[in-house]
Write a structure and sequence with these properties.
Two copies of one chain form a homodimer. By secondary structure, chain A is of the alpha/beta class. Chain A is built from twelve helices and 14 strands. Chain A is globular and about 60 Å long.
Chain lengths: 363, 363
């Protein structure tokens, strides 16, 4: 049995996986309409919002493009506060679609420093919008989103677009209370689902930006999603199978209580970090910013993380994730989002422990 | 048991549906790489091509956007030859992304007239590219693509983008023999799969256009798909579940033989048209252009097609499709793509027959 410990796709619980084999229905019929409205109500509870939420047939990257292309215009001044590869991607999407992107980059393994953000916004009053990643999957760092939002929205009154792909449903995020304008996330994360769906929320402020936005959009045109939503339909044929599974998974999430789901993620993450340190390994970021959905583990100087991953996979059937970009080979990453048992974490820690001598680390 | 007779999503055979519940794997690991390459080989057989083919996580509309955004530039002169709503959509995508679109519209229920196409291309030498729908799902008309391609490519040497969403794998289409530059299609059609994946082929000529193309693209950036393909990966997390099902369905399609799949579609379509006429109803297009994947049925003057559909659904559990746009209420549509049994067509015809008196038609 494979122990899939990458930060998505996550192992899907059997009862949810079963729903993926549900037979097709008419996506323009009354039963679909009921399902779409029920799903949307569930999503709103998890997002902690009364804003519109749409279900897209895409990966999370598609939802990031939707966030950008539906609210910004070519030439518009935008700030991208990045703490890693996925933050950089958000800025790149905006710049590919013509925005004038100012980049505020923080060192790998650290989070956004609010005072820096304030300084840049203060010095660049022409900036209209801020792009930020809630949880940087590549470094295992979670930004403290609430104070970031207080600066961006409360102090400067800018539009705030949030990549919540590896955070929503796993980490505390309160869309309305924190006044987040657009939040994008994807199914193969805390939602306990296969990949293939993305979810995006739009505040009134985001809709106002949408009216002025001139970036081209068709497949991800959220106005069309809104228009069709009133008929209980999506504009294009949706990933029905994953919607059946989502419909079911949401009943479980709501029954458990979203706050309890957050707590479950925090507990399993703590167990993971404690276990990694007990092996004499180093968690890459500081505890104050370490993510509760993905743990990045730094290798001692001269040890190849990908070599360790190979042994762990070959000898123990545990799949760890590598790191992107300049961190490749220097770190490995452990995904612990969705439903994760303590046994799975223990088996993974045992597998790492047994493999350390093979890369020259004595335990 | 519902008899889902819409032109996608189609009823998925049980053995294929079962594959949707396969557990997740690492989409950046060696097993995925094997699957991606195996799938791509199968797709090439069905497309009849040696061109690159990519698997997108989107609906067919996403693949239409990919076709446009990867090959055209804002301001570029493009001809959209449309025979209905989906043809119009193709032109609209191009114009949303900034192309200068000339529209050549043919009457609803008819196909592209090649002499007209030739006349417009001759009169507008600045046109670089032609958009055309192979099978217009809204009117049940199939364009004769081979002579269209001979004019566009052979006589005028333009780039040819084909919406093959409701045709590829169901109707004869030979990408290389007919020299089609871009062909886009989607999983919930003849492929016998749930919705959630789209497939797109790119010729060398299309890649040459891609190099000069300046339309913005990120999620649908096919250069990124190509770059990652060499590593056996997709750039973004894919709809794994539908890929498992596709992997399996392709073995069935290839074993049956693509030509036999086309023949099967032709036979079941003929049975459908014969049955509709035996009920005294009229097939909307002429036999010479009638589609073998979807049959559009015209109602007698004064009879509401949607009223008939309601009775057929309520009393017999048969789901027929309505028509879009100006044809709403005047026609209904029958989907017969993917795997369809003669029993399903018979049951549907019986259901329509029994419901005709309820809308005032004596049989």
């Amino acid at each position: 049995m494979v122990n899939l410990r990458i930060p998505g796709p996550i192992p899907v619980p059997d009862d949810i996986l079963d729903k993926m084999s549900t037979q097709m229905m008419n996506h323009r019929g009354p039963k679909f309409k009921e399902m779409l409205y029920r799903i949307t109500d569930g999503l709103k509870q998890v997002f902690h919002t009364e804003n519109d939420i749409f279900v897209l047939t895409s990966s999370g990257t598609g939802a990031m493009e939707a966030a950008v292309a539906n609210t910004l215009s070519p030439g518009e001044k935008v700030l991208c506060a990045s703490i890693g590869s996925f933050g950089d991607r958000f800025g790149k999407i905006a710049s590919v679609f013509g925005a004038d992107v100012t980049r505020l980059n923080f060192p790998q393994g650290t989070a956004v420093v609010v005072d820096e953000l304030r300084r840049v916004l203060d010095a660049n009053p022409e900036i209209t919008s801020v792009l930020v990643t809630h949880n940087e999957t590549n470094t295992g760092v979670t930004n403290d989103l609430e104070p970031i939002a207080r600066v961006v929205k409360g102090e400067f009154d800018k539009l705030l677009l949030v990549d919540g792909i590896s955070s929503v449903c796993s980490l505390p995020l309160k869309t309305d209370e924190w006044d987040l304008d657009v939040v994008a996330t994807a199914s193969q994360k805390g939602w306990m689902l296969p990949p293939g769906l993305a979810f995006i929320s739009m505040s009134e402020r985001a809709w106002a930006a949408n009216e002025k936005s001139t970036m081209p959009r068709f497949y991800f045109n959220l106005s069309e999603y809104k228009r069709y939503f009133d008929m209980g339909q999506p504009p294009w044929t949706p990933n029905l199978s994953a919607m059946y599974a989502l419909d079911y998974a949401l009943t479980k999430i709501v029954a458990e209580g979203v706050e309890n789901v957050w707590k479950r993620h925090a507990d399993i993450a703590q167990m993971t970090r404690d276990g990694i340190r007990a092996l004499g390994l180093e968690v890459f970021p500081d505890d104050s910013v370490a993510s509760n959905t993905v743990t990045a583990v730094k290798m001692p100087e001269g040890v190849d993380a990908d070599e360790l991953r190979k042994h762990v996979l070959q000898d123990h059937n545990v799949v760890l994730a590598g790191a992107y970009g300049e961190l490749t080979g220097k770190m490995f990453r452990i995904g612990h989002l969705g439903y994760v048992s303590t046994e799975e974490i223990e088996q993974m820690l045992d597998a790492i422990k047994a493999s350390l001598p093979k890369v020259g680390i004595g335990v």
